[in-house]
Amino acid sequence: MVGSWRFVARNRGVYSGRPTQMNPGMICGEVVSAGRPVSEALVGLNHVEIRNRGRLPLYNERGTLTPNIYGKTNSKGWFALFFQWDPINLGDVGDTETPPYQLNAMLPTGDGYGPPTVYRGTLIFVVSLRAIADGRIQDPRKPDSIASNTLRQAYRYSRGFPIPRLFLSPGRPSPEYYALLGAAEILT
Length: 188
Prior knowledge:
The protein has one domain. The strands form five sheets. Strands 3, 4, 10, 15 and 16 form a five-stranded mixed beta sheet that branches. The protein has helices spanning 90-96, 129-133, 145-158; strands at 5-9, 15-19, 23-33, 36-37, 42-50, 54-55, 58-59, 65-66, 69-72, 78-85, 100-106, 108-109, 112-113, 117-122, 124-127, 178-187. A hairpin with a 5-residue loop joins β1 and β2 (15-19). The N and C termini lie far apart (49 Å). By secondary structure, it is mainly β.
């Protein structure tokens, strides 16, 4: 068990551990103003809500707990925000089914950024496609219109971004197979 956990020393000799393998998450989308894509807009993931716990603790790509995840749009106005979450929250995330999230988008101005535009959306709870194809685990996703639309939009917006191995977890079925995926079209 010790080999699969990284323990972090806290004050007064209390130790807190979390799995070294975190669950992935990705929200991708587009920022549009007056019908045109906006490049260099700053987009931030403010929070993800889960049932029974309030806000889901988010980790950046380095595995550090962070209150917000930020990124900028490319020349097409598209963005991709990658985050991680602790598999200890798997039950609460799964119980929520479509966790709501909030993005803040700020358009570039001559001397910084303008006021934020708030976007609220929902994430879908997905499973490693490799594990499903291999028959190791059942597909818990429901083929509803929200999931289909989110997958279609995420695929469209994610083209051209270096996507981590979100859905190709090797090995035996484990909590790390589950991921959160979202897509957003932010109109300002």
